[in-house]
Amino acid sequence: MILLTIRMMVHPRNRAAVLNVIRPMLGPTSVETGCAGCHISADDDDENVLTFSEEWDGQENLDRHVRSNSFRDLLSVLDMATEPPEVRIHTVTEIRGLEAIRATRLEPS
Predict the structure, then answer these.
(1) Mean pLDDT of 56-65
(2) Mean pLDDT on 35-50
(3) Distance between CA 51 and CA 87 in Å, rounded?
(4) CB neighbours of 92 closer than 8 A, spacing ≥ 6?
(5) Does the pTM exceed 0.90?
(6) Alpha-carbon distance values, 3 to 13, 29, 36, 56 (Å)
(7) How far is Cα 7 from Cα 104, in angstroms, rounded to an integer?
(8) For residue 34, is it left (φ>0), alpha (ψ between -120 and 50) or beta?
(9) What is the DSSP letter of 84?
């Protein structure tokens, strides 16, 4: 799995414009081949700090998406950030859930 996250700070006067570009992308992106999820969220402490995230099943599908017109639209709103956005692409080799927590908690200390 590959996780793409973009964290950006926007000026309050640009926040609505940024969200008006990103929100319509969420549905179409989430049904693209290989996309496991697409989300936008605001920081609890500062609503002008936005984090856009996507989950992909492989590099090929992410690459195709990055070359798309919708991703170009996403890149265009990065110019509205008040400071350079933080872009991260994480390659996840293993995903574990509650069973890992249970196993760790049951291990003797």
Answers:
(1) 96
(2) 96
(3) 10
(4) 1, 2, 3
(5) no
(6) 29, 14, 10, 6
(7) 32
(8) left
(9) -
Query: What is the C-alpha separation between 3 and 108, in angstroms, rounded?
Result: 34
Q: Which two tokens stand for residue 69?
A: 């017109």
35 token code pair: 């996309």
Largest Cα–Cα distance in the chain? 54
Q: Which pLDDT score is estimated for 89?
A: 97
The answer to whether residues 21 and 77 touch, using CB atoms and an 8 Å cutoff, is: yes
**Which one, of 70, 71, 83, lies nearest residue 10 by Cα?**
83
From CA 72, how far away is CA 82, in angstroms rounded? 19
Residues in the chain: 109
* Secondary structure of residue 44 in the 3-state scheme: coil
Domains contained in the chain, CATH given: 2-106 (3.30.70.100)
30: Cα within 13 Å, side-chain hemisphere: 12
